[in-house]
Amino acid sequence: MFKVHCLNSISNFGLKELNTRYSLTDSLVDADAFLVRSASLHEQEFNPQLQCIARAGAGVNNIPLERCSEKGIVVFNTPGANANGVKELVLAGLLLSCRDLVGGIEWCKKNANDEAIAKTVEKEKKNFSGIEIQGKTLGVIGLGAIGAKVANAATSLAMKVIGYDPYISIHAAWSLSSKVEHATEIQTLLEKADFITLHLPLTNDTKEMINESLFNIMKHGTVLLNFSRDTLVNEIDLKNAIEQGIIKKYITDFPNPTVMHLDNTLVLPHLGASTEEAEDNCAQMAVLEMMEYLEHGNIKNSVNYPNCDMGHCEATSRIALLHQNIPNMIGQITQVLAKEGINIANLINNSKGQVAYTLIDLENKIKDTTKNELESIQGVSKVRIIKM
Ligand SMILES: NC(=O)c1ccc[n+]([C@@H]2O[C@H](COP(=O)([O-])OP(=O)(O)OC[C@H]3O[C@@H](n4cnc5c(N)ncnc54)[C@H](O)[C@@H]3O)[C@@H](O)[C@H]2O)c1
Ligand SMILES: O=C(O)[C@H](O)COP(=O)(O)O
């Protein structure tokens, strides 16, 4: 029986995939797997039994990836599963930035009891007027699942679109409209864009990437949309850019004490992925990735371990080893098995950066003592017996 702990509420559409081999646990201590959305795990201790963490969503900056890799914990996310939900909210943000819709709605509410409102409004409406997006230039930074959808949608709304993504995947590149202009340097995008939207992950490399030096390249009166993460933007520099009129409007999905007090800023309550469809998609994908790993040892969409698919085990037993990507690991592993007279039916060894994953089907049963011996090889973080 596998025990699963949910750190956030996860859509039942995903949880109903769990079969009789699973139970939900309230305890973090005895869980084999965590399901999580945005809850932070940085301060969380991980028990030795924890095999994987499935993030029902895209961003994994709430998970200590390095510590998970050291402990042989596989972290999954759900690429693209909430991209349409975010795209639709970004389009809403784009339109909200053009006329003062929020101010206008507030004005109507405030004047609800004015019998002459139909007449007064015709004098007052100029206070909420604005511009159109048609013909304006949108700069999209990060052309992954969300950025590509936003870029394509904006071309359909008659915007000119420039995209910047030095690490674009082939899949994302194929999905982009040919109308999207490709910027090889971020400067080109910043110089031309009337609206800039951020769709890149928060990492050590991208933290506060949008700072004074980039604000200084932007056009006076740029609208900045941030539906990715708050700390991609240096908020002190943002405040200055707003005061200088470089940023005309900042639309963000991430409330924090600083942005709540900025002028010309519209803050949404982290709603990008909060649609029924996105929540269902993410939950289902996360649960299925977790089950495939726990039951069969196969890895799909991990952010810290390589993909690996050996199908379902037809041999007598299956073991998985999570280890460092260093020389002679396979030699040492097969030596232990050979010493025990265990014959290998099939073996996959894949690596990703500093770590590697070895999945082995065996023609003999595997004993606990063999598992212990494999665990004692230097550089092995975890050994799982998937089928005895
Ligand atoms: N507001 C929300 O509710 C919400 C929902 C989903 C995702 N997000 C955020 O959006 C981010 C992107 O999500 P996604 O699904 O599109 O992810 P994705 O992995 O499909 O795309 C991210 C893209 O950013 C690119 N990138 C990385 N570093 C870059 C850099 N320095 N400059 C330009 N591009 C760079 C990558 O090459 C990739 O193409 C997530 O990491 C998450 O933080 C927010
Ligand atoms: O990275 C993501 O997928 C989003 O920020 C969504 O987060 P949520 O699942 O907590 O809404």
From TrEMBL:
The keyword NAD applies. It holds the Pfam family 2-Hacid_dh. Residues 318-388 form the ACT domain. PROSITE patterns: ACT, D_2_HYDROXYACID_DH_1, D_2_HYDROXYACID_DH_2. InterPro entries: ACT-like_dom_sf, ACT_dom, D-isomer_2_OHA_DH_cat_dom, D-isomer_DH_CS, D-isomer_DH_CS1, D-isomer_DH_NAD-bd, NAD(P)-bd_dom_sf. GO terms for molecular function: NAD binding; phosphoglycerate dehydrogenase activity. Pathway: Amino-acid biosynthesis; L-serine biosynthesis; L-serine from 3-phospho-D-glycerate: step 1/3. The keyword DNA-binding does not apply. Its EC number is 1.1.1.399, 1.1.1.95. Keywords: NAD, Oxidoreductase. Catalyzes the reversible oxidation of 3-phospho-D-glycerate to 3-phosphonooxypyruvate, the first step of the phosphorylated L-serine biosynthesis pathway. Also catalyzes the reversible oxidation of 2-hydroxyglutarate to 2-oxoglutarate. Belongs to the D-isomer specific 2-hydroxyacid dehydrogenase family. This is D-3-phosphoglycerate dehydrogenase.
